[in-house]
Known about the structure:
The chain has helices at residues 3-17, 22-31, 35-44, 54-68, 75-92, 96-107, 128-132, 143-160, 165-173, 180-193. The protein is mainly α. Helix 8 crosses helix 9 (165-173). The chain is globular, with a radius of gyration of 15 Å.
Amino acid sequence: xxxxxxxxxxxxxxxxxxxxxxxxxxxxxxxxxxxxxxxxxxxxxxxxxxxxxxxxxxxxxxxxxxxxxxxxxxxxxxxxxxxxxxxxxxxxxxxxxxxxxxxxxxxxxxxxxxxxxxxxxxxxxxxxxxxxxxxxxxxxxxxxxxxxxxxxxxxxxxxxxxxxxxxxxxxxxxxxxxxxxxxxxxxxxxxxxxxx
Length: 196
């Protein structure tokens, strides 16, 4: 996994779980912005790619759509989300299933979710990022935008942690040094997105 993805995830999680006021959480996160992460987010918002061939796409989409159906009954919305998750995860060098597990834990697949700290959307992105990278018109409730930011952040943290998924997920959640959040994501990954 790429380092950029790992770093990105840590910032998202940190902002979403801090037991402080919304303004304090945003200010604290903004103060600790890593310039390399800012640069990677700026580059990521203008990029895209995905499946190797049609057969691989059909197999993965059918399998994941079946797993996601209980939480997202609308087949059109479900397929659009899965295609976008695959494209953005692949672009960032991440496992699409890891991203699905993270979304399950972060927002339960609710596109308009807002945390008590103000993190938004599927991957719970802190709004300060849109100003931090100079894109004030970006909408964090837009599925592709939210996934682009979140996957870039998680990839950055994975790079920063030399591929250590537990530490990268803890960074994403803002709980570095603890394992409860990575354990939740790992459990979702193992029990729902890779089979039983």
